[in-house]
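ingest -> fold -> write
write: protein_1
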Amino acid sequence: MSTQGIFKGWLNKKAYGFIKIPDDSSDIFLHITHATNPLELSAGCQVEFEIDTSEKKRQAVNAKLIAPPHYPPLKDNGSSRVPYNNSHEQLQDSEQITDETLESEEIEELDTDAANNALLSEISRWKREAKSEDNTRYFWHVREVDQISQGEKCFVIGRKGSGKTAICEHFSALSSHDVFSEKLSFKNFPFNELYDHKNAKYTKPNQFITIWKYLIYSSICRLMLKDNSVDLEIREQLSKIYDDKAPLSRRIGRWVSKDFGFSLFGLSLKITRSEDTHEPTNWIKNVDYLEDLLLNHVSESKYYILFDELDEDYRDIVAEEQFEQYTALITSLFKAVQDIRSIFGGGGAKILPIVFLRDDIYDLVKDSDKNKWGDFRVDLNWDVEKIKRLIAFRISRAIDQDCKNILPFDAAWGRVFGARRIGVGSNRQKSKISTFEFICRSTLIRPRDFVLYLQNCAQHAIESNVQIGPTVVRYVDKAFSNYLRQELTDELFAILPDISNTFDTISQLRKWNFSIPEFEQAYQQRVEQGFIQERNVKFVLQILFLFSVIGNSPRGGRYVFRYQNREARLNYNERVVVHRGLFKALQIL
């Protein structure tokens, strides 16, 4: 026969609690092993159970949740949340209970008194994509931002998830009487619009410099319409041809049209009083008109032109010709930005084009001028201490969106995860590490990894009505592993179209530490079976190492991954290890 009551909570660090039954002066003892799902039960929730008297004392069995604590309590002649120190009549002393102190990690999460639902709720709403995030609240102002804003750096290079888009969004949102910005996003952009507009006067890979300069100059003209320090007559003239709200792809099509060229030519005659009265024969001449116009009439305001999501066409490259065309386009962009910096760098004008690009794409660019770009490049590299400062900032802002005094990392982390440690290895009771260290081992030490991990932990804790602790972290670790595999698949597909089958090859080895000959043998079998087309296994290993899917395992119990050391190179004489974050997704553990 089923009975209902109010669960009073698990005793701190104990494997049992008590249930209050309305109109009954005695509480019912409940051992954790007799709860259907102990993680669902917290103080004040309504439970349904059966009473077992076979052990000469009443105890609850088959206890299950029927209503969480915030539901109206059952009538019990007073408060249902009875203090723990009300003694249980049937229990004479604690020695009658076996396994009194629970050694497993799970019981640590059953004490939910310290859970801050408002904080967990806010963290659960964090966004992995910076474009969707509340950047006013959560943007962390790193040193690199100051270098970019002062014009010292203009090439922002970093891996996916390292914060490029967050910085881009920050600059895109800037607006004041003397600061203007426009983001040129190439997400879902028809790149053929650019490929079709080469300047035949330039040799490869410089044939796209002119179209990039045209885009930048035209975007500056659009921003000048908002700048009250620009002469009113100039703004009125510019508004006749640049005051449009069309998407970027359509704007480019219009800007390179013959009719637009005539309009711009007429504008140039009016504004610059140019002595060149030859009508333009194509859009290339327009670049000269705009350059003269800006040199003579742009104000001393800051104009940021932001290039983001340039990897869109890179994902679809399947042929050598496409690759050469794409890398030429990117190379031309870097050279166009350099050229504009040299043209406008000496005067009062502050025209600041900024390029955000994935590091693996940047590495593919080969050009004699590439070394010179290093002076203007900023690399978004992260280490554990820098990630800690970012997390402390985000948690502090999650607690208070206007927070000025950021909590130290340990205090901030403790507000979400507490001080509990998580068992690792074959003996989890003796070998324990912090939850932060456990999560670190599953990530590539990127902001996006931690935002997603904490977001998922908060969501699961809310759904299960528990604090975030070891069990929640372990539960989320599997979902995170699947996310990391998919993230790497998206990142690698343009280079290794067989990446999914390559991951399957690692799965079939069924171990995380193996020799290169072992991998080569398994890989060759997949090639012979027709699952994989790429036959150069050493190339595949290099790419897997480059993206930290694998690392080296030299003697001494340490591992070498490229995400930890950018200068690391694959050593074919050492064993390799799979990144721990992929273990579950690859079914290694």
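write: protein_2
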Amino acid sequence: STRKTCMRILKFYYITLLRDPVSRYLSEWRHVQRGATWKTSLHMCDGRTPTPEELPPCYEGTDWSGCTLQEFMDCPYNLANNRQVRMLADLSLVGCYNMSFIPENKRAQVLLESAKKNLRDMAFFGLTEFQRKTQYLFERTFNLKFIRPFMQYNSTRAGGVEADSETIRRIEELNDLDVQLYDYAKDLFQQRYQYKRQLERMEQRIKNREERLLHRSSEALPKEEAEEQGRLPTEDYMSHIIEKW
């Protein structure tokens, strides 16, 4: 009974981190190239897994290790394409992995809008390319403090890949929905960040004003009375701040 009560009061939040689509795609290619697979992923949608016809494999054998970037890009069934939109969107709106459910253009638009909506509805999301701002937003959203500041590492596996402009353009085409989502996410992220910053500055101004008023009221009292009264308002004020946070 106690356990059921505890379960009822738990509140869960969906959060996610997005990454620049080109960097993310190249990183996944390098990951697959080293032998990674997603064989254990069921890709459940509307209570069922996709058929082999709906989701054909990109390779034969146990894994796709050693595949070239060109081979990776050439597979039309590669789930790396627009992965971020696919994982954020409600796939049941487009018939899951059944590509004949609705026309391709309509499918793409529905998926993108669904991903945007779900991103907006999340209590928090961050961007890999903006680690410090991501940390700030997380801390301000959930009233938590990390022990150490987030570090911005730009020397990633994807960063070590030399790709010409034509290859980059091809990756952007394959991930057009992810590119659109990421542009949208950057704008929304900045809005949320600026809002939290403004809120913090406003709270700090209120705090400073209250402290000044408290200091002045203490100075206006006789010394003994000020000492006695000076302690209590401070405790009340701290309680107010704790409740507020």
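write: annotation protein_2
The two ends are 31 Å apart (CA to CA).
Confidence is low (pLDDT under 50) at residues 229-245.
pipeline exit 0
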